[in-house]
Amino acid sequence: MNLEELVKPDSVLCNVSARSKKHCLEILSELLTRSNPDIASEEVFAKLVERERLGCTCLEKGIAFPRCRISGLQSSYAALMRLTDPVDFDSISGESVDLVFGLMVPEHLSDADNADVKALLEILRDPTLCARLRAATNSTDLSAALLTGQLEAVAKLNIAQRG
Questions:
Q1: pTM of this prediction?
Q2: Alpha carbons 7 and 102: distance in angstroms, whole number
Q3: Are 70 and 3 in contact (CB under 8 A)?
Q4: Is 109 in a helix, a strand, or coil?
Q5: Which of 19, 108, 125, 155 would you call most buried, defined as having the most Cβ atoms within 10 angstroms of its Cβ?
């Protein structure tokens, strides 16, 4: 998995002001479709909301990982937002969310797609990466923090798996 291919620079947004979880998902759907003009953001929004109804996508420590399957999509696309003020994401712990990593994947997932989702879950749980993302002050810095943090998080995971 290469985050540089998955997350396009125009799909990263820092200092987002979202009024609610729903508003956050609306903004996220627009980010996810920027590189995919053939896919309506309304469709992605509806799928994200549908997925949230199945269960909260909060990971922990203020991070949400909303994701959905989209018919006709050939490869996965992701987006990242850092919120200016945390929003209630209906997490079990009651903790609000300030980092939102969204993902849309093809309707029929391959083994590689499933492996990518699992790898993303691990990377997003890395406290060093999250601290870097929270320290970013603009979208360019946020994107760079994600890409740099991915390399470090993967290195940590590889060491932990070997040792």
A1: 0.89
A2: 10
A3: no
A4: coil
A5: 125
